[in-house]
Automatic annotation (TrEMBL):
<feature type="domain" description="Dihydroxy-acid/6-phosphogluconate dehydratase N-terminal">
    <location>
        <begin position="9"/>
        <end position="254"/>
    </location>
</feature>
<dbReference type="Pfam" id="PF00920">
    <property type="entry name" value="ILVD_EDD_N"/>
</dbReference>
<comment type="similarity">
    <text>Belongs to the IlvD/Edd family.</text>
</comment>
<keyword id="KW-0456">Lyase</keyword>
<dbReference type="GO" id="GO:0005829">
    <property type="term" value="C:cytosol"/>
</dbReference>
<dbReference type="GO" id="GO:0004160">
    <property type="term" value="F:dihydroxy-acid dehydratase activity"/>
</dbReference>
<dbReference type="InterPro" id="IPR000581">
    <property type="entry name" value="ILV_EDD_N"/>
</dbReference>
<dbReference type="InterPro" id="IPR037237">
    <property type="entry name" value="IlvD/EDD_N"/>
</dbReference>
<protein>
    <submittedName>
        <fullName>Dihydroxy-acid dehydratase</fullName>
        <ecNumber>4.2.1.9</ecNumber>
    </submittedName>
</protein>
<dbReference type="InterPro" id="IPR020558">
    <property type="entry name" value="DiOHA_6PGluconate_deHydtase_CS"/>
</dbReference>
Length: 277
């Protein structure tokens, strides 16, 4: 289904769906007079749609991803290889690959729940929302959907949103609202991370849109300047079969990337107790 969308007019609906999602978030929160929210998203336009919506609403919020699936594994030519859905599509389209091998790869490509196992669009955005700041009390950008720590991540999110809501409505503390977290320096940190991890180019579209919602002067010129200074640190699937998001998490995740790339500013305010600097 996804592959067929890429080569048909259905692809024209992809980016506009982000606006529908942002509008839906705004609609539901305002229609039901919600005081705060927890965004749990995990794929393509849902991540940036939620981000645009929460910046537009500017109420207490925690953003938590659902997590990537484990990388697929199969044995080909007496060698165990890692793979994902992109590999399955490539094998299926290659006339030199037998139907049996193509079926084997397809059955192995998506072994668990979660979004794609590589650093594609949805997981680039999950990592970037962690870098921007509106996340739960813990690193969520690279933690597998099947990881035991996910339960504690969501429990922490529930506790933190109650704390943030009380701080804002009972103590008049606006410091933890999304627009006070997502400053220009935070957007620069997010793009620094994106460049360092070789993330999806879709993130350029989404960060610029989020900056507009946050009323932040962050433009293509800023991205160009960062791209000339920040090195790409490693390749992750689909750029290579060797490493997937599970490997990124074991190597330190978002904080590991950011520490190696160098934060663009001093420590940025965050909803959890750690920072990128």
């Amino acid at each position: 289904m996804m592959a067929s969308r890429w080569v048909t007019g259905g692809m024209l609906y992809s980016l506009p769906s982000r606006e529908l999602i942002a509008d839906s978030v705004e609609y539901m929160v305002n229609a039901h007079c919600a005081d705060a929210m927890v965004c749990i998203s995990n794929c393509d336009k849902i991540n940036p749609g939620d981000a645009d919506g929460l910046l537009r609403l500017n109420i207490p919020v925690i953003f938590v991803s659902g997590g990537p699936m484990e990388a697929g594994k199969t044995k080909l030519s007496d060698k165990i290889i890692k793979l994902d859905l992109v590999d399955a599509m490539i094998q299926g389209a290659d006339p030199k690959v037998s139907d049996e091998q193509s079926d084997q790869v397809e059955r192995s490509a998506c072994p668990t729940c979660g979004s794609c196992s590589g650093d594609v669009h949805r997981y680039s955005m999950n990592c970037l929302t962690e870098a921007l700041g509106p996340v739960s009390a813990g690193a969520h950008g690279s933690l597998l959907a099947t990881h035991a720590d996910r339960k504690q991540l969501f429990l922490n999110a529930g506790k933190r949103i109650v704390e943030l809501t009380k701080r804002y409505y009972e103590q008049d503390d606006a410091s933890a609202l999304p627009r006070n977290i997502a400053s220009k320096a935070a957007f620069e940190n997010a793009m620094t991370l994106d460049i360092a991890m070789g993330g999806s180019t879709n993130t350029v579209l989404h960060l610029l849109a989020a900056a507009q919602e946050a009323e932040i002067d962050f433009t293509m010129s800023d991205i160009d300047k960062l791209s000339r200074k920040v090195p790409q640190l490693c390749k992750v699937a689909p750029s290579t079969q060797k490493y997937h998001m599970e490997d990124v998490h074991r190597a330190g995740g978002v904080l590991g990337y950011s520490g190696r790339a160098g934060s663009r500013r001093a420590a940025q305010p965050r909803r959890e107790k750690t920072c990128l600097a």
